[in-house]
Design brief:
Number of helices: 11
Radius of gyration: 20 Å
Distance between the termini: 77 Å
Number of strands: 0
Largest sheet: none
Order of helices and strands: HHHHHHHHHHH
Shape: globular
CATH topology: Tetracycline Repressor, domain 2
Mean pLDDT: 86
Structural class: mainly alpha
Helix content: over 70%
CATH class: Mainly Alpha
């Protein structure tokens, strides 16, 4: 049997990590089956341990990959926005969207993995990956908060991030019921109050008059 090249090995590992990042968000850490993962990646079951020494190592890699995807997605939204307030609005609206609620496999892992990570031991590698990823997202959100006080911006970002995660988690838990929509709408209203947007439109109309 021909030996697999280093390039192909790296490509296979990346394929496994990407598939795992989706499955771990859909099924959680305990629901991440090696057999299902390798089948999803289009690879043989026996090849798993050539890439990861344990399921814990896989969970940490999947968590890290999932957060990297979210960070990149957030960075793209920020880069395409006109200014910081518009970027913040874009992040919040995407996070609290029905698409985000209905597609955990491609949405923010901070919500999808919070409960599972909380059950892991303090020394579990996935905890470090989760913390690192959460800090990266908080850094992006903090940079979009108004004002020059970095400490205040950090506190505001932490509070807003907490509301985002809680609302999305509860919306998923109550999906199919009107309460699910209420959770998303209420969090949206708190973070992007309609009167504030209305006043901005009034000022814009007056300036144009």
């Amino acid at each position: 049997m021909p030996r697999v090249s280093r390039q192909q090995t790296d490509a296979n590992r990346a394929t496994i990590a990407e598939a795992a990042a989706r499955l771990i968000r859909e099924r959680g850490i305990d629901g991440l089956s090696v057999a299902d993962l390798m089948a999803s990646a289009g690879l043989t079951h026996g090849g798993f341990y050539g890439h990861f020494e344990s399921k814990q190592a896989l969970a940490a890699s999947a968590c890290r990959t999932a957060f990297e995807q979210s960070v990149q997605r957030w960075q793209r939204r920020v880069a395409s926005a006109a200014d910081a307030p518009a970027a913040r609005t874009a992040l919040i609206e995407a996070f609290l969207s029905r698409a985000s609620r209905n597609s955990p496999g491609s949405s923010c892992p901070a919500t999808a993995l919070a409960a599972d990570v909380a059950r892991q031991s303090p020394q579990a590698p996935v905890r470090a990956a989760y913390l690192e990823g959460t800090e990266a997202l908080l850094g992006i959100l903090s940079a979009l908060e108004p004002g020059e006080d970095a400490a205040h911006a950090r506190r505001t970002a932490v509070a807003e991030f907490s509301l985002l995660l809680g609302a999305l988690l509860l919306a998923r838990a109550t999906a199919g019921h009107d309460l699910s929509e209420e959770f998303l709408a209420a969090a949206h209203e708190q973070l992007l109050p309609a009167p504030r947007r209305s006043r901005a439109r009034v000022r814009a109309r007056r300036a144009a008059a």
